[in-house]
Each structure stands twice: as C-alpha cells, then as structure tokens.
Design a protein that fits this description.
Radius of gyration: 14 Å
Helix content: 40-55%
Mean pLDDT: 93
Strand content: 15-25%
Structural class: alpha+beta
Number of helices: 3
Oligomer: single chain
Largest sheet: 4 strands, antiparallel
Low-confidence stretches: none
Number of strands: 4
Distance between the termini: 20 Å
Length: about 100
C-alpha cells in the first residue's frame, strides 16, 4: 500500500480559504509531508531554537488542531481514490515514524 498516489486534504482553520491539498507519489511521502508541515510550524514558532524535538503526542495535537485533515489514496484495483480520515492518518504517521526510528 506504500506506493499509491496520495492526496492530502487539509484545512488549517474555520476560514474556508485555508483549504488546500498536497499531492504525493506514495503514502510514505505523504506521511513525511505531514511531519514536515508540523516541523516547519515548530521552526516558525521557535525561530531562535536550533534543534527542535517533539514526540508523537505533540504531532497528534497538531493534527487534531487542524480543522480538517483527510487523505485520498488511489486504489489500482478499482481505479478510484479511497478516503481515509484523521485517525487513519495519525495511525499511519505513527507507523511511519516508528519505522524510521528502527
């Protein structure tokens, strides 16, 4: 399931103009992209801090703080995109980071 085209749909606030999407070649790249969004936000909030660390709870709080977050993943067998919710994304991000840590 890792090399499936993935579109991440995100809305950062109640303002509809904050709706956006990010396009990735795989689920792994999408999970990297979501982590990267959080890391950029941390750098923006802490510009003087050189090394910023965070744990999974911090990342989950970031994800839960978004007004909306979901993913559309292309399934070749049905030739269509299947939707996945915030909880699925949190699970996949955790699995992704766990794999990177090993």
């Amino acid at each position: 399931m890792a090399n499936k085209h993935t579109i991440v749909l995100m809305q950062t606030s109640q303002n509809r103009s904050t709706r956006t999407f990010m396009d990735y070649g795989s689920i792994t790249q999408a999970m990297d992209g979501i982590c990267g969004l959080y890391e950029r936000k941390l750098k923006e909030l802490n510009p003087a801090t050189r090394n910023i660390t965070y744990d999974i709870a911090d990342l989950y709080n970031f994800i839960d703080g978004l007004t909306d977050l979901s993913a559309l993943i292309y399934d070749h067998t049905i030739q269509a995109y299947l939707p996945y919710d915030r909880q699925w994304i949190k699970h996949r991000v955790f699995q992704h980071l766990k794999k990177l840590a090993n």
